[in-house]
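User: Teach me something about this protein's shape.
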Amino acid sequence: MFVEIITPDKEIFKGNASLVQLPGIDGLFTILENHGAMIAGLQKGKIRIVSEGETSYFDIQGGVVEVIKNKVQILAE
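Assistant: First, the predicted structure itself:
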């Protein structure tokens, strides 16, 4: 699936991933390939992205995620 992480200042990640784990308002949740469409609020925490066997982490202060047709767009602070 295609993933973008965008902050007010810049784009910090853009690429394909097999797993995205996010700090949702009600706790951690994971998005995998072919996930259903959704929009969710995010709280302060770490985003975990697994891409081609490599794991990356990004600290955020909050934000919103939108998932539509294998595209995950994260607007983060």
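Now, about its shape. The CA atoms of residues 51 and 75 lie 19 Å apart. The chain has a mean pLDDT of 96. If you'd like, I can walk through any region in more detail.
User: That's plenty for now, thanks!
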